[in-house]
TrEMBL record:
Keywords attached to this entry: ATP-binding, Nucleotide-binding, Transport
SUPFAM superfamilies assigned: P-loop containing nucleoside triphosphate hydrolases
Domain of life: Bacteria
Domain ABC transporter: 27-276
Keyword Nucleotide-binding part of the UniProt annotation: yes
SMART domains on file: AAA
Cell wall biogenesis/degradation recorded as keyword: no
Alphabetical list of PANTHER family matching this protein: D,D-DIPEPTIDE TRANSPORT ATP-BINDING PROTEIN DDPF-RELATED, TRANSPORT ATP-BINDING PROTEIN
Organism per entry: Berryella intestinalis
Molecular-function GO terms, alphabetical: ATP binding; ATP hydrolysis activity
Protein known as: ABC transporter
Gene Ontology process terms (BP): transmembrane transport
Length: 291
């Protein structure tokens, strides 16, 4: 199934490449694999773990691509390849048509290709000793974006965009709730007006009631800013709620892909069916929380 799924994606990619009029995907992972050296590995592959195995996927402008699969299936490694934190062992990474396979996240920023990441735990993603205002100013200072006045105005704009009062700007992360901290992390991710955002399990560390609020915030921002987003989760119901397109991963491979509604209403792969069958009892006992 995965080969069929990836063959389909490769055929689409070839077709898109042949048509100059077709809009380039923001991110295009072309048949990437990531193999880590380890002390253990498997019987067939000693001292090696294949975290991602011949994966092809595309993120189009304004789209939310959901990546779903169990722990260890390669989601975070895929996210790291997308944002330049991990170089693939094989395969190529394109950013708006440009081959950036060998470029680090830092090098990509210098050529104006920005992908921001929102991590699972805002407590560790934010600097505990920096005020909220400084956390938001930091990326603009580091990348020398705007005058001090423009940066200050942008900070006020960002904090409003994520639904927080400007009174939190002087607070330290430890003085905020988990949901507020994740809002700050999202504001920080938006500060350089990224081409795409990768949200890697952004709600998993939060209380169930707060999860729905953060999901709704991401949906609102996506609409208002026409964000292109990769949303990664082991929770298939959360992915279903927010995504336009879905890739289901198992053991480093894409086992199913397609429009979210089609994948969920008519899953073809046994693993997807298993995830869907297991889903209702996993994290959202009360579906009204997501409405
Ligand atoms: N730096 C590394 N060195 C060795 N093995 C690694 C490394 N990073 C990830 N792995 C292994 O690669 C596989 C995929 O890991 P990855 O973190 O991408 O999965 P995941 O789906 O994001 O899981 P989780 O949801 O638990 O984070 C796992 O078997 C993991 O142990």
């Amino acid at each position: 199934m995965s080969q069929t799924s990836d063959a389909k994606a490769s055929a689409e990619a070839a077709q898109a490449a042949a048509s100059p009029a077709a809009e380039e995907p923001i991110i295009f992972l072309d048949d990437i694999s990531v193999v880590f050296k380890t002390r253990t590995g498997s019987l067939l592959n000693p001292n090696r773990v294949t975290a991602v195995n011949h994966l092809t996927l595309k993120l189009h402008r304004g789209e939310t691509l959901g990546i779903v699969g169990e722990s260890g299936c390669g989601k975070s490694t895929t996210a790291n390849v997308m944002c330049g934190l991990q170089t693939p062992t094989s395969g190529q990474v394109f950013f708006k048509g440009e081959n950036v396979t060998k470029r680090s996240a830092e090098q990509r920023r210098h050529i104006g290709r920005v992908i921001s990441v929102v991590f699972q735990d805002p407590a560790t993603a934010l600097n505990a000793r920096m005020s909220v205002a400084d956390q938001l100013l930091d990326p603009m200072r580091v990348h020398k974006v705007g005058t001090p006045q423009e940066q200050a105005a942008r900070v006020r704009e960002l904090i409003g965009m994520v639904g927080l009062p400007s009174s939190v700007l002087d607070a330290l992360p430890g003085q905020l709730s988990g949901g507020q901290r994740q809002r700050v992390a999202i504001a920080r991710a938006l500060s350089l007006s990224p081409d795409a955002i990768i949200a890697d399990e952004p709600t998993s560390a939060l209380d169930v009631s707060v999860r729905a609020q953060i999901l709704n915030l991401l949906m609102d921002l996506k609409r208002e800013l026409q964000l292109s987003m990769v949303f990664i989760s082991h929770d298939i119901q959360t992915v279903r709620y927010i995504s336009d397109q879905i890739v289901v991963m198992n053991k480093g491979q894409a086992v199913e892909r397609g429009k979210a509604s089609e994948v969920f209403d008519n899953p073809q792969d046994d693993y997807t069916k298993l995830l869907l069958g297991a889903a209702p009892s996993l994290l959202h006992p009360d579906p009204s929380l997501l409405s």
